């Protein structure tokens, strides 16, 4: 029998699809704006702070641990009302979240190497490689909810990538630099895809996802911090671990990171992993424009044009994106 048969009434939850589509622009804009704000605030705090803490792995470990405590407190509070909710069976949340944590660890380990070995002028072009990689990945995998079909959507992705890549196309095509950029792009695409699959299998229960993800990531970061030598250096050379102001900075960083993770999950939940990659690239392109406008940082006219073209492609992607990027059956699990 046809889905549109007059003998079958439309489900009452069909309006959720419409509401989800209307939320995509709001959630994506909020994510991009807050991501730029969080990045600038973090850089400002690290610049003016008297606490110099050049240990990225240990910093991530502490902030992830703080984020897990906050989520656990929220989850404990919500448990009082859980008996009155409709409980859904879940199959091994730890197994579902493990690929996400592994990909996140890879990005955390790779990011300092990427930022220190790649010139700043190539940061945006190489980050933009995640767009064609994610687009190819989504079209090849044919996973539910990951396909962003349509000529306008494809054109928007192409415009966004070319706008960012043309900032420095010659140096970005050098073999060594290109390999680093492509590796980072593959990890980013794999991370977004793993997050979307885990959310779908968990019926979009973001609290359970965050709780398992943060706890598992924290456990995986401990050996990374130990074998990198950072944890030993922190315990033997850092003299301000007992000062409340230092931990206040870590709490602020944890709150910013946790909020970004929640917004990222909302983008993937109501749109797709491809939309998340587009939003991340838009954030990277918007950040130099914000610093140039508010802080007077110089920017070349050519770079300005390229950034505007890239942001135009991102806007075209979200404006022309087909309605309901999620699988239809996931509507019933909201």
From TrEMBL:
KW NADP (keyword) present: no
Residues annotated as transmembrane: 23-45, 57-75, 96-114, 120-137, 149-167, 213-235, 247-268, 275-295, 301-319
Family designation: Belongs to the TPT transporter family. SLC35D subfamily.
Role, per record: Involved in the import of GDP-mannose from the cytoplasm into the Golgi lumen.
Annotated keywords: Cytoplasmic vesicle, Endoplasmic reticulum, Golgi apparatus, Membrane, Sugar transport, Transmembrane, Transmembrane helix, Transport
One Gene Ontology term, aspect cellular component: cytoplasmic vesicle membrane
Protein's name according to its UniProt entry: GDP-mannose transporter
Primary localization: Golgi
Subunit: Homooligomer.
Annotated membrane topology: Multi-pass membrane protein
Subcellular location: Golgi apparatus membrane; Cytoplasmic vesicle membrane; Endoplasmic reticulum membrane; Membrane
């Amino acid at each position: 029998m046809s889905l549109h048969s007059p003998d079958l009434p439309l489900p009452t939850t069909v309006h959720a699809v419409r509401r989800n589509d209307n939320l995509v622009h709001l959630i994506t804009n909020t994510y991009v704006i807050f991501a730029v704000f969080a990045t600038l605030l973090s850089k400002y705090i690290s610049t003016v702070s008297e606490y110099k803490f050049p240990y990225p792995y240990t910093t991530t470990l502490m902030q992830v641990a703080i984020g897990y405590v906050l989520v656990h407190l929220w989850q404990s509070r919500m448990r009082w009302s859980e008996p009155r909710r409709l409980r859904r069976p879940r199959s091994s949340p730890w197994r579902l979240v493990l690929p996400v944590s592994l990909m996140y660890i890879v990005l955390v380990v790779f990011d300092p190497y990427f930022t220190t070995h790649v010139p700043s002028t190539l940061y945006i072009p190489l980050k933009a490689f995640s767009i064609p990689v994610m687009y190819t990945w989504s079209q090849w995998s044919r996973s539910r909810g990951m396909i962003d079909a349509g000529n306008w959507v494809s054109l928007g992705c192409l415009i966004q990538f070319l706008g960012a890549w043309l900032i420095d196309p010659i140096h970005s095509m050098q073999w060594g630099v290109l390999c680093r950029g492509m590796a980072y792009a593959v990890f980013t695409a794999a991370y977004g895809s793993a997050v979307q699959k885990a959310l779908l299998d968990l019926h979009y229960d973001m609290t359970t996802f965050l709780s398992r993800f943060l706890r598992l990531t924290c456990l995986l970061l401990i050996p990374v911090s130990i074998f990198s030598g950072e944890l030993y250096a922190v315990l033997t050379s850092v003299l301000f671990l007992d000062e409340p102001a230092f931990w206040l900075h870590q709490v602020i960083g944890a709150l910013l990171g946790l909020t970004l993770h929640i917004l990222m999950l909302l983008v993937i939940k109501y749109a797709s992993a491809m939309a998340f990659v587009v939003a991340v690239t838009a954030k990277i392109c918007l950040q130099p424009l914000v610093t140039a406008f508010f802080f007077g940082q110089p920017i070349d006219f050519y770079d300005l044009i390229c950034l505007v073209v890239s942001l135009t492609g991102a806007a075209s992607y979200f404006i022309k994106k087909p309605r309901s990027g999620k699988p239809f059956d996931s509507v019933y699990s909201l």
